[in-house]
Design brief:
Elements lengths: L4 E8 L13 E4 L10 H6 L3 E9 L2 E4 L12 H14 L8 E7 L3 H13 L2 H4 L4 E7 L14 E5 L7 H5 L1 E7 L16 H13 L5 E4 L5 H10 L3 E4 L2 H14 E3 L22 E7 L4 H10 L11 E6 L10 H10 L20 H7 L3 E9 L3 H4 L11 H10 L4 E5 L11 E3 L13 E4 L15 H14 L5 E7 L2 H6 L3 H24 L3 E6 L3 E2 L3 E6 L4 E5 L5 E2 L3 E6 L8 E4 L2 H9 L4
Parallel strand pairs: 2-3, 2-10, 5-6, 6-7, 7-8, 8-9, 9-10, 12-18, 12-19, 13-25, 14-15, 14-18, 15-17, 16-17
Antiparallel strand pairs: 1-3, 1-5, 3-4, 11-22, 13-24, 19-24, 20-23, 21-22
Length: 593
C-alpha cells in the first residue's frame, strides 16, 4: 500500500567529455527510461543529456512515465546512480563534467531531501568535482539555493536576474519553447517567430549559463536550427540519431569563400547550323545533381553551368553492376560500350574497343586530356588505354606512351616513364604558344592537391591554354577535361571538398564556354560519370555561402546524372538515355559514323 504518492519528473543530463562534441550543443535523451537500455544507450550513443521521470513511493524513487506503470526494480538508484558509479569504475567517465537535472513535480523540500540522501550514498560520485545535480520544477526559491551541498545546483526557468551568489548555484537555464513559437520543425520559423526565438536565446545566453528549451519539435531541421542558434541542450526522443547528427554537424557544414565568376554565354550558334569541328567533353567525377546544387548555392545562386539551356539525363549502370565506377563510366563515354567495373577501354569480355581519341585521331583530329587526377587514373585512362583493371597502372602508363594524344595535363609524373615523344611544359603559360607536336604538362609527381589544399586556379588556367594549344594545330580537336576531386569529397563525405571542387570545375567550364563563343563550331558537353556519396543538402544559407550536406554512403550511387550541352550540336544531348550514348551523340554531331 502506498503511504504517500509523490511524483517527480527527474531529468538526468549527463555531459561526458570523452563522448562529448567539440561544439557547445548536446543531445538530451528525453524520457530516457523508455529506451530499451536506459542510461547506457544514451551514453554509448554520445547523447550528453538523459531524462527520467521518478515517483517517490514509500520513501523510494521509482522511474516511470506514469504511476500505474511503476515497476519495483526500476528505481532511480538502480537505473542511474549505480550506472554512473559503474561508468566511473570502468573509466568510461573520467574527468569529464556530468550534470544531473532533477525536475521536481511535487512538493519540493521533502523530495529534494530524499534525492540528496540517495546521492550521498555514493561518495565516489559526490567526490567528483565534475559531477553535479541540477534541481528543477518545484525547487526551493533562489534565496535558499545556497543551503544545499556543492553537488546540488538548480535549473532556473526565468529571464529575471539573480544575485551573484544565486547565479553560482544555477547549473542550467530552461524555457518552454511553445511560449515563443508553435513551429513544428518543418521548413523554418515564420518571420514573426524567428526574431522572438533568436532574441530570447540571446537574452538567455547573456547570463552565461547552459541553455535549454523544452517542448521543441524533434527532427533534423529542428536540431540544426537550435544547435546553430545557441541552444546547449537539445531535447530528443531519438538520442542516438540526434547525438550522431550533432556530432558531425560542424564537419558537414561548410562556409564557402571560393568563387566562380559567372559568364553569360552568347548562344551565337543558335539557328545558324554551323558544323561541329571541335568537341570539349567535361566530366565532373562524382558530380551529381546535389553536388552541382551545392556549388550553385555556395556561389551566390549561379554558375556558368546554370546559364546553359540544353539539359539531358544519363543512366549510369555498368554492364555488371547496378552502380558504376569511374572506369566503367568513363569507358562508356570513351568507347560507346558499357563494360564491367574496373575495366578500362575494353568490352565485358576484356577485348579492346577503339576509344574516342583513337577514332578521331584517324580522322585528322588533335586530341587532349586534362585532369586533376593522376594521368593513369580511371577516367583519363579510359580515353587512351585498354586494360582489364584500373589498378594496372604500369600497363596503363605504357598505353599512354603508345597513345595518339597530342596533349595531356595531369598529376602522376612518377607513374610515367619512356614518354620521349612528348615535350614537357614547365608551367601552364608555356602551353598555349608551344609548337611541339605532342606536349605534356605535369601538375605533380603523384596526386594533385585539392583546392582546399592550395591548388589555386590551375585547372582553369590549364584549360584555357590547352584549348589554345590544340586550336593552334589548325585541325579539329577533341579535348576531355576532368574535375576529378569532386568524387574525392563524396568518398570522404567532405562537404567543403565537394563545394570547392565543384566551383573550380565551373571555372574550367567557363573557359570552355568562352572558347566556344570565340570559336564557332565548338561543341561543349558537360556531365559526370556517376554521383558519389548519396549527397543531399538539407540546410544552408545563401547569404553566407554556407552549405550543410548529408550523406547516405561513402561510395557511388546510381542516381541519374545531368548532361549540359552548348554550341553546335547541343540539341543532340537532351532527353534521357544511357551513358554510352554520349559517345555516339558526339560522333553524330561530328557526322562521323
Amino acid at each position: 500500500m502506498f503511504l504517500s504518492l509523490r511524483k517527480i519528473s527527474l531529468t538526468v543530463a549527463i555531459t561526458v567529455g570523452s563522448l562529448a562534441f567539440a561544439q557547445n550543443y548536446s543531445a538530451h535523451s528525453h524520457n530516457d527510461y523508455e529506451q530499451k537500455v536506459p542510461f547506457w544507450y544514451a551514453l554509448g550513443a554520445g547523447a550528453t543529456s538523459i531524462e527520467a521521470d521518478v515517483y517517490l513511493v514509500d520513501n523510494e524513487l521509482y522511474v516511470s512515465h506514469e504511476k500505474k506503470d511503476i515497476y519495483k526494480q526500476r528505481t532511480f538508484d538502480n537505473l542511474y546512480l549505480k550506472s554512473i558509479e559503474k561508468a566511473l569504475e570502468l573509466g568510461i567517465i573520467k574527468d569529464q563534467p556530468i550534470q544531473i537535472l532533477v525536475d521536481l513535480k511535487t512538493e519540493g523540500e521533502s523530495t529534494l531531501k530524499k534525492i540528496v540522501a540517495e546521492i550521498s550514498k555514493y561518495p565516489k560520485i559526490t567526490a567528483q568535482k565534475n559531477i553535479s545535480f541540477v534541481i528543477s520544477g518545484n525547487k526551493p526559491s533562489p534565496e535558499k539555493f545556497t543551503a544545499y551541498p556543492d553537488f546540488i545546483q538548480f535549473d532556473y526557468q526565468s529571464l529575471q536576474n539573480l544575485t551573484p551568489q544565486q547565479w553560482q548555484k544555477v547549473g542550467l537555464l530552461s524555457l518552454n519553447f511553445k511560449d515563443y513559437s508553435v513551429w513544428n520543425g518543418k521548413g523554418g520559423l515564420t518571420e514573426e517567430d524567428l526574431p522572438k526565438v533568436t532574441e530570447v536565446i540571446k537574452k538567455a545566453k547573456s547570463f552565461k549559463k547552459p541553455f535549454r528549451f523544452w517542448a521543441i519539435p524533434d527532427g533534423k531541421t529542428s536540431w540544426e536550427f537550435f544547435a546553430h542558434a545557441g541552444v546547449d541542450f537539445i531535447n530528443t526522443d531519438h538520442p542516438k540519431e540526434c547525438a550522431e547528427y550533432l556530432k558531425n554537424l560542424d564537419k558537414r557544414t561548410f562556409r564557402n569563400t571560393l568563387t566562380s565568376e559567372v559568364y553569360q554565354p552568347k548562344f551565337l550558334y543558335e539557328n545558324k547550323n554551323i558544323p561541329v569541328k571541335n568537341v570539349i567533353l567535361l566530366i565532373g567525377d562524382g558530380n551529381g545533381l546535389s553536388q552541382i546544387s551545392s556549388s550553385v548555392l555556395a556561389n551566390k545562386g549561379q554558375l556558368t553551368l546554370t546559364q546553359l539551356k540544353n539539359i539531358g539525363l544519363i543512366k549510369t549502370t555498368a554492364a555488371d553492376n547496378f552502380t558504376t565506377d569511374s572506369a566503367a563510366g568513363a569507358s562508356a563515354f570513351a568507347t560507346g560500350k558499357k563494360t564491367k567495373n574496373r575495366f578500362i577501354g575494353v568490352d565485358p569480355s576484356g577485348k579492346a574497343v577503339p576509344n574516342m581519341t583513337e577514332i578521331l585521331s584517324e580522322k585528322g583530329f588533335s586530341t587532349g586530356i586534362i585532369t586533376t587526377d593522376e594521368i593513369v587514373g580511371a577516367t583519363p585512362s579510359a580515353f587512351y588505354a585498354h586494360q582489364k583493371d584500373r589498378g594496372m597502372e604500369k600497363e596503363i602508363a605504357s598505353d599512354l606512351v603508345k597513345s595518339r594524344l597530342n596533349f595531356f595535363a595531369a598529376g602522376g609524373k612518377s607513374k610515367v616513364s619512356g614518354l620521349n615523344n612528348f615535350q614537357v611544359a614547365e608551367n601552364a603559360k608555356e602551353i598555349a604558344d608551344n609548337t611541339a607536336e605532342r606536349l605534356a604538362y605535369y601538375f605533380s609527381d603523384n596526386g594533385v592537391p585539392q583546392i582546399l589544399k592550395g591548388r589555386g586556379n590551375l585547372l582553369a588556367e590549364t584549360v584555357e591554354n590547352g584549348l589554345e594549344f590544340l586550336k593552334n594545330k589548325k585541325k579539329p580537336f577533341f579535348m576531355m577535361i576532368e574535375g576529378a576531386q569532386i568524387d574525392s569529397g563524396g568518398h570522404a563525405n567532405n562537404v567543403g571538398t565537394i563545394v570547392t571542387e565543384g566551383i573550380d570545375f565551373d571555372r574550367a567550364i567557363t573557359k570552355a564556354i568562352q572558347f566556344a563563343d570565340q570559336n564557332p563550331g565548338t561543341l561543349v558537353v558537360i556531365t559526370a560519370d556517376h554521383e558519389t556519396g548519396g549527397f543531399s543538402i538539407p540546410h544552408g544559407d545563401m547569404a553566407t555561402s554556407t552549405i550543410e550536406g548529408d550523406f547516405t554512403t561513402d561510395d557511388h550511387s546510381a542516381t541519374l546524372i545531368p548532361v549540359f550541352s552548348y554550341g553546335s550540336g547541343a540539341e543532340n544531348f537532351t532527353g534521357v538515355y544511357e551513358n554510352n550514348e554520349i559517345f555516339h551523340k558526339i560522333l553524330k554531331s561530328l557526322k562521323i559514323k
